[in-house]
Structures are given as structure tokens and as C-alpha cells.
Design goal:
- The structure is a single chain.
- The chain is mainly β.
- The chain contains five helices and 29 strands.
- Strands 9-12-25-14-23-26-27-29-28 form a nine-stranded mixed sheet. An eight-stranded antiparallel beta barrel has the order 1-2-3-4-5-6-7-8.
- Strand 4 (55-62) and strand 5 form a beta hairpin.
- The radius of gyration is 26 Å and the shape is elongated.
Length: 422
């Protein structure tokens, strides 16, 4: 056997340097925490180039070994990397900023199929945490559609059978191939449909929404019945056992999802009553059929949860419970690569909507307004002055949630106003 043949067997990368070219999903393992990035690599003969966000790579490929230096845009060295290719995976060690040692690994991004798939998912287990540590029930690709269902906030299904403990048990989570930290997950709500004729709500105003004097003086009847009948044919809800004054009171059915979430940042876990930049228990009554929701991705695969169906809900979910019921849901997913929202966003046929979630209504309003202004300036190419004029004349606020651990305020602007932009 010739020396050249021996080298080809021992170091197959030399014969196929192009095999390392392409998009890789990179993980740096640092002091028990993982940091993620999408990396593009290119090989020409034994030369390696690439990029990681603003960093540029230059290095070499020798057999199944790679070495490269990462530099900042100004040319300063950020770190040195050494790695090997084994079984299609890259791994190695590195030194960042001339002092911090770490290990790293990378695998190729999974290619998106030529045609999307429709998945029917029958849940058997429901989760009461938003957490990236929960194994996904299904791996799906951008463009795919999932048809599934949710239990109500108390864990009851469409037959009235209890399938979980209460507290907004969630369906999922779903792993979206190719979703990576720094991306935005896009969820199109194709169908949000009632699947039973009963619901339950609260019968007292949350103390968060009224003065202490009102809380002290309110004379609530502990026997008051706030169960509802849902007439899906007529599109209305009515109390199952109304008082005399409410016997003719009806509510228009507007099915919505109270919860949609990705895995929270920094490997955190939250009970499903919580909300934040990851989404969660947002309880916004515009999360209806036809809406598109945008959530920042914090973990590979996004890890998407949904649940907490409401037959109808006023602004703020004032009684702590909307018309809680189970739901049939169909949704389609996509990804915006390389761009992450500051927090949840949404749009429907009429509005673009930015969501602020914070410890006070004022902070939530500021977050929502700032994010909406930034959205207009980026996607609609407005200057800060132009954004100020548009929002100063067309902005609307919705108070989405006042009874959960965080306040949720939505800033929105009509698409008819945006249509006038050139």
C-alpha cells in the first residue's frame, strides 16, 4: 500500500475538506454552563475560514484535526481553538481572551426537508413547568404543522376527565429543528377551537386590580356559581346557574390560548403560572386563531409549550380565571434565523403587537413601547423621529394581564396606519 493510500484511510478529511464546510451549531461548555452560537465554516484545501456572529475564523485542516484563531472585527484576537472531527461531530478545546479555558462541540444543522409535514399529536402527559430540561414529545421542522389538543387550567380534558393536576398544565414541548439561541420562533395559530360545552371562571376581582378599600368592603358570596355553558353553535357563553340579574347576560365566544412559551433563558425553570421574555402565561385575549406569535429562542430546539385555553376573556383576566376550558389546536412553526426579539411579539390581520412583561404596569408599558418602537425602526426602516410621530398618533395599549406574578401590557399599532408608510 502506498503512503498516499495510508494517509487517505487514516485522515479521510484530507480527501473531502469540503465536508466541513457549511452551517454548524456550536456549543461552548464553560464552568457548568453552555453557550450557543451558529457557526459557518468553509474549507479550501487545508485552509479553514468561518464566522461566529461578528467573529471571523482563520485556520487550517490537517487530517481530522482543525486549528483556528477567532478575531474580532477590529482584528484583535478573541480566542484560539483546537478540535477534531469524529463521526460527523466536531469537538475540542479553546482559550478565550488569552486566559479562559473551555471545551466546545459542534454538529451540523439539520437540513430542512423539501416539503413540510402535518403531525397529529395525541398528548398523554402534561407539564406544569416551562423548562428546557423536559424531553420534547416531538421533533418538527420549520414549516411543519401540528394538530393537537390541550386540557384546561385545572387539568380536565374535553370529556371532563382529569388528566393532570391544575395550574395550567401544558401540551408539548415540541423541539423545532434548526431553532437556535439568537433566533426567533414563529408560531402561526391556524386553529384554536373549543372542544366541549363547559367552562369555569373566577367570581371575585383580583386584589391586584382594585384598591385595598374595595377588597375590604366587597361582600362576596362564597356560594356564587361561576360555571359557564358554551353554546358553540350560537357563539355565546352564559352562566350555568345565573343570578336573577345575570340570567340574560351572554358573552361572545372568542377562543384563545393563555399560554405559549419557549424554554426560559439560562436553563431556568418556571411554574406554568409565570410569564416573562420567554412567553408563558401571557393571558392576552388576542392569542386567537389567525394570530402569529414571535418568541425569542434561548435553547436549541426552542422547546415550545402551549396550553391554558380560554373560551373568552376580558382584558387583564380580572378574576384570576377566564372562561377556562379545553381546546383543539393547530399551529405551524417557522424560524427567523439570526434575529432575536427582546420579548414576545404578535400580529394579526389588524395589528402588530409588542408585549411588555414586568413587575409593575409602568415598567411593562415601557418595555412594550420600547420594543414596538425598535420593531418599527428595524423592520419598517423608520427613524426615531418618524417612529415617535407614528406611535404618538396611532399607538394603542391593551392591559393583557394583572393577576399573575408579572404585569403584561401590550403596545400595538394598526396595519392600516403602517400601510401609509413608504
Amino acid at each position: 500500500m502506498t503512503r498516499a493510500a495510508i494517509l487517505l484511510i487514516a485522515f479521510p478529511l484530507l480527501t473531502a475538506a469540503q465536508d466541513i464546510s457549511g452551517e454548524w451549531e456550536f456549543t461552548a461548555h464553560r464552568m457548568g454552563m453552555d453557550t450557543y452560537a451558529r457557526v459557518t465554516l468553509k474549507t479550501e484545501s487545508d485552509k479553514l475560514t468561518g464566522s461566529l456572529n461578528e467573529l471571523k475564523f482563520e485556520g487550517t485542516v490537517h487530517g481530522n484535526t482543525i486549528d483556528f484563531i477567532a478575531r474580532r472585527p477590529n482584528g484583535d484576537k478573541f480566542g484560539t481553538f483546537h478540535g477534531t472531527l469524529q463521526a460527523g461531530e466536531l469537538s475540542g478545546d479553546a482559550v478565550w481572551l488569552e486566559k479562559e479555558k473551555l471545551t466546545w462541540s459542534a454538529h451540523r444543522s439539520v437540513p430542512r426537508p423539501a416539503s413540510p409535514t402535518v403531525h397529529d399529536f395525541e398528548p398523554t402527559q402534561f407539564h406544569r413547568l416551562f423548562s428546557g430540561s423536559i424531553p420534547p414529545v416531538m421533533r418538527i421542522f420549520p414549516g411543519d404543522t401540528v394538530r393537537t389538543w390541550t386540557v384546561d387550567a385545572g387539568g380536565f380534558d374535553k370529556h371532563g376527565e382529569r388528566r393532570s393536576m391544575g395550574g395550567n398544565p401544558e401540551t408539548g414541548p415540541f423541539y423545532i429543528e434548526g431553532a437556535f439561541p439568537g433566533d426567533t420562533l414563529v408560531i402561526k395559530l391556524v386553529k384554536v377551537r373549543l372542544n366541549r360545552d363547559t367552562a369555569e371562571s373566577g367570581g371575585e376581582i383580583s386584589s391586584n386590580a382594585v384598591t385595598p378599600d374595595y377588597v375590604h368592603d366587597a361582600k362576596y358570596d362564597e356560594k356564587f356559581n361561576s360555571e359557564w355553558k358554551l353554546d358553540r353553535e350560537k357563539g355565546i357563553a352564559m352562566l350555568a346557574k345565573p343570578t336573577a340579574r345575570l340570567k340574560n347576560y351572554t358573552v361572545k365566544l372568542q377562543p384563545m390560548l393563555g399560554c405559549m412559551a419557549v424554554a426560559p433563558p439560562a436553563m431556568q425553570s418556571f411554574r406554568t403560572g409565570q410569564l416573562g421574555s420567554f412567553g408563558g402565561n401571557m393571558d392576552y385575549n388576542q392569542m386567537r386563531e389567525g394570530a402569529t406569535v414571535y418568541l425569542p429562542v434561548y435553547q436549541p430546539g426552542a422547546i415550545f409549550f402551549l396550553g391554558d385555553g380560554h373560551a373568552a376573556q376580558g382584558d387583564g383576566e380580572l378574576t384570576g380565571d377566564a372562561l377556562e376550558t379545553s381546546m383543539d389546536v393547530e399551529f405551524t412553526v417557522d424560524i427567523v434565523k439570526g434575529y432575536s426579539t427582546d420579548g414576545p411579539r404578535a400580529e394579526n390581520d389588524d395589528y402588530v403587537m409588542s408585549m411588555g412583561i414586568a413587575g409593575s404596569p409602568g415598567e411593562a408599558m415601557q418595555q412594550a413601547t420600547a420594543q414596538l418602537a425598535s420593531w418599527l425602526e428595524k423592520d419598517y426602516k423608520l427613524t426615531a423621529n418618524e417612529s415617535a410621530v407614528l406611535l404618538g398618533t396611532a399607538l394603542r395599549y391593551d392591559i393583557a394581564e394583572v393577576v399573575d406574578p408579572m404585569y403584561h401590557v401590550v403596545a400595538k399599532v394598526s396595519k392600516s396606519a403602517l400601510a401609509a408608510l413608504k
